[in-house]
Amino acid sequence: MTERTSFITSISTQSSTDIRVPSPLVEIEHEASPKLIVDPPLPESLAQGRVFIQYRTQNLRLLPVFGKGALGVSPRIGHIHITVDDAPWHFIDASGETIVLVGLEPGSHKVLIELADPTHKVITSETVHFTLAAPKQ
């Protein structure tokens, strides 16, 4: 068996649920608690005055579905709330894509990322702190 054949065989022994979440077509009994995993901003983008924050969820799918009727959906669904620098308002995202912030002034900042259910009740949260340098002249 060649090295290439061995590699292909080892890949094919993994199931899709080893890599992804369980099928969204089957109800999940006794779902585990939702988790939010947030990475620090990408340093390359910070050096350019942009903030790129990658995140993912576990045991909750991000979808733009809202209201009490969506609370009983399985697998569980929700969205995130994003608050920048303790603003009195936040914005909502259900894409699961990288959070992109531009136009912030140089200096220290923080971003609160909250995982919320379809009724906007916060389940868990993470705060990211970072500093943007002044642009080079």
Give a written overview of the molecule.
By secondary structure, the protein is mainly β. The protein has a single domain (23-132), classed as Immunoglobulin-like (Sandwich), CATH 2.60.40.2550. The protein is 13% helix and 36% strand. The chain is built from 3 helices and 9 strands; from the N terminus they run ααβαββββββββ. The strands form 3 sheets. Strands 4, 5, 6, 8 and 9 form a 5-stranded mixed β-sheet that branches. The chain has a two-stranded antiparallel sheet with strand order 1-3. Strand 8 and strand 9 form a beta hairpin. The longest helix has 10 residues, at 3-12. The relative contact order is 0.21. The mean pLDDT is 86.
Average pLDDT confidence is 86
State Rg: 19 Å
Q: What name does CATH use for the topology?
A: Immunoglobulin-like
Fraction of helical residues: 10-25%
